[in-house]
Design a protein that fits this description.
two-stranded parallel ribbon; 34% helix
Length: 218
């Protein structure tokens, strides 16, 4: 099998781990990464393209393959405002999904967030929920959405709140009823994404919190 993967967010926590797993997978022969800045990779399987996300339609031909992995995301602090964050977390990802759907990419895989809901009072969770709602209307043969808890791992930008939660949550989640909220590493999410892309599954699937751990090595 010689699949082609398209990866958005290849420089982020989950995206970096996913590219490594795709490179090491014999099932994928070609990995196309679309980034805002150069992201070279030692493997000849990886083809990096620096794109202008405000004009993604100019790169329609790059959205061709077997799977689109959407791992793109930012924070309000990094983006500078909720509006700017929304552009990255919703607008860019939706545009990419639409281009992939237009090119008949069969499988779309999205890293969202636990608690994502278009009706949420949280701007972040609301934009994540809106994205889910809209991509679910696109004509992909298959859509897999992951809603993980707190993501653990090394990031380019330190996030004080997440660092504190990363120290506290593992202990709290040992309490009865809280285990499903336990944090997950970026590599574990990447592992699950790869596994989903290689196995048969339902046309529409959303995995929440501890459901993502199913089938992964402890």
């Amino acid at each position: 099998m010689t699949k082609t993967a398209i990866v958005l967010g290849a420089t982020g926590l989950v995206g970096r781990a996913l590219v490594e797993r795709l490179v090491n997978s014999t099932d994928f022969a070609h990995v196309v990464t679309l980034t805002r800045r150069p992201a070279p990779h030692q493997s000849t399987k990886v083809e990096n393209h620096v794109v202008n996300f405000d004009q993604l339609e100019d790169y329609q031909s790059l959205f061709s393959g077997d799977c689109l992995f959407s791992c793109l995301g930012t924070t309000k602090k990094q983006a500078g405002s909720i509006a700017a964050q929304r552009k990255v977390d919703l607008d860019y990802q939706l545009s990419a999904a639409q281009l992939a759907a237009n090119n008949a990419v069969p499988h779309y895989l999205l890293v969202s967030s636990s608690g994502a809901s278009a009706n949420s009072l949280s701007p972040y969770l609301s934009m994540k929920g809106e994205l889910e709602q809209q991509v679910l209307q696109l004509p992909f043969e298959r859509i897999s959405i992951l809603q993980p808890s707190l993501l653990l791992g090394s990031r380019d930008h330190a996030r004080a709140g997440e660092q504190f939660a990363a120290r506290v949550l593992p202990t709290l989640c040992k309490l009865p009823g809280l285990r499903k909220y336990r944090p997950i590493t970026g590599d574990q999410v990447a592992h699950k994404l790869l596994a989903l892309s290689l196995a048969a599954g339902p046309a529409r699937q959303t995995l929440v919190l501890d459901q993502i751990f199913a089938g992964l090595p402890e």
